[in-house]
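Researcher: We're reviewing a set of sequences before deciding which ones to prioritize for further study. For each one, I'd like a predicted 3D structure that I can look through quickly. This is M23 family metallopeptidase. If possible, include the structure in token form so it fits the rest of the review sheet.
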Amino acid sequence: MFQDHQLGLQQGGATASLWATESLNRSPEPQDWRARLREWADEVELVPDLGQRIGSRTWFRGLFTCFGLCAMALYLSPAFEPVPGAPGPVLSDAHYDEVRSQMITPLALGADSGRHMGSTDAVQPLRETPERPQIELNAQVGSSDTLARALSRAGVSGNDVSTVMGLVGGDIDGGVKPGTRLDIILGRRASRDRPRPLDRLAFRARLDLSVELTRNGGLLSARRIPIRVDDTPLRIQGVVGDSIYRSARAAGAPPRAVQAFLRVIAQQVDLGGIAAGDRYDIVTEYRRAETGDVEVGDLLYAGLKRGRGKSIDMLKWTKDGRTEWFEASGVGERRGVLSSPVSGRMSSGFGMRRHPILGYTRMHAGIDFAARYGSPIYAVTDGVVAYAGRHGGHGNYVRIQHGGGLATGYAHMSRIAAVPGQRVRRGQVIGYVGSTGLSTGPHLHYELYRNGATVNPLSVRFTTTAQLAGAELAAFRAKLAQYRQLRVGLHDNFAQAGGAGPAAKGK
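Model: Here's the predicted structure for M23 family metallopeptidase, in token form for your review sheet.
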């Protein structure tokens, strides 16, 4: 035991005194060695910063030190070797079948392992796989499709398709509406080389009729289920906001009705002149079934009350087999603009020009419309076909007399769809765009004749006016008054008849 040096060395005993004396005798040598080591370490920097003084002697010394330490670490690193294990025993075929029959891998993974349960004496091989007793399908009639093609795609045999069409052909004269759902059940077939028979078919033939076909005693029979339909026209009124289209749609008008309304109004006034605060009035055909399904028909009435400018009251009416729009006074007006007998852009105007084939300047007696090959060509107004056939540089050519000394000509057709002496109406297809005759590409050369001489087609506009009178005018005004008195929105006639109709549409 040692005591503090303040108490004196003699108090520590003989042993302490001897140790202190020897320590004092040996202390100068290690102290000199440490001093020299500190002086050498200050002069030689063993671990310099390799990011500074690059290329100097000190930097290379630090680099060698780094490499040396890395080499020593790799040299002294322990070696890792795999530990050998005893291989598993090889099972015989009998032992493997026994283990395979007891394992659950095929059951757990749905036979993804490719192995099967071991068979027993009770297992017998099947001569053929069993079939389902019936197959339930849901098909749908596509656009530009027929009921027969939809049934054939679903797997119904040709004989059953013919039977179905014979039973329901009278109920779908106009075809089945695209998107109609078909609920089909195919039964058990007699043999594998024969198609499955149609056991049941249910679909919506029309808005007011559902049809269900079932097989009884090997024969198909149809059961027709009538559906009540309310065909009261739909009336929508409102005030024009920043857009007449958005205002009418917000009021509940169907898109088809709004588009037809704008087309009718545009023939009377400039749509850009319709201002906020004007009131619109729309009446359209609207059929509503008690199941909630609806069909939007044609526009019947278009009204527009303007704060400034002409107000509009237009009613669709059929006169002499032709449906036209008539004003409230009973005057109907149809305009036929002669500048668009085909859907395309005008590529060459009326007047002198250099002929692209003949190579010299001569009179271009019409206007050209660039259009795709095969595009339909329409008669610009009513008339009688005076000529249809080959006509020199015009190629396939049709000429129509319209009365009053006016006639129109249509050249370079690929195919003619009119015959001489035929009476045609405005918008009727009389041929198709081609490049026959003196032509460099598919287009329509359109001409207008006045008393046999060609004139600029853009300078003439046909206007046909019809006037109602007598009993027909009275019936027209009665129908107009009926639409004006029609309540706005839907009419819950189902509730009045004791049924539950769908919710009323918002105004």
